[in-house]
Amino acid sequence: MEKIKTVDIHDKVFEETYTAHIQRNGANWLGQILDVPKVKCEAPTEAVLLKTLEKKLHEALVAEEEAWEKQFEEDVKAGRLDHLAEKAIKNYREGKYRSIDELQKLL
After folding, report:
1. Where do the structural domains in the chain lie, given as residue ranges?
2. Which residues is 17 bridged to in the sheet?
3. What pTM value is reported for the model?
C-alpha cells in the first residue's frame, strides 16, 4: 500500500467540506471520510474514487438530514419539545429576550 493522501471534498448542497483519506492499494484505490463513517469505497482510479466518495458523501448527508427531520417531527408530535416552548414563552413574558436587530448587532 502507498502512503495515505488527504483530499478535501466539498458538498455544494450542504456547503460543507470534508477530508477524504485515500490510498492506492495494488491496482485499486481505497478511500474514506472519517467524519462520516458510512462513506468509504474502492475504485479502479483515483478520479473515479473521488467522484464516488463525493456522491456517497452527499447521499449520507441527505440520509442524516432526513433522519434528523423525522426524529424532530416525532419529538414534536410526542410533546418532547413542549418544555422548550414553555420556557421561551415564560422568558418572553418576563422580558428576558432580545430582538433580532439586537442579536444581529452582536454578530
Report:
1. 5-93
2. 10
3. 0.77
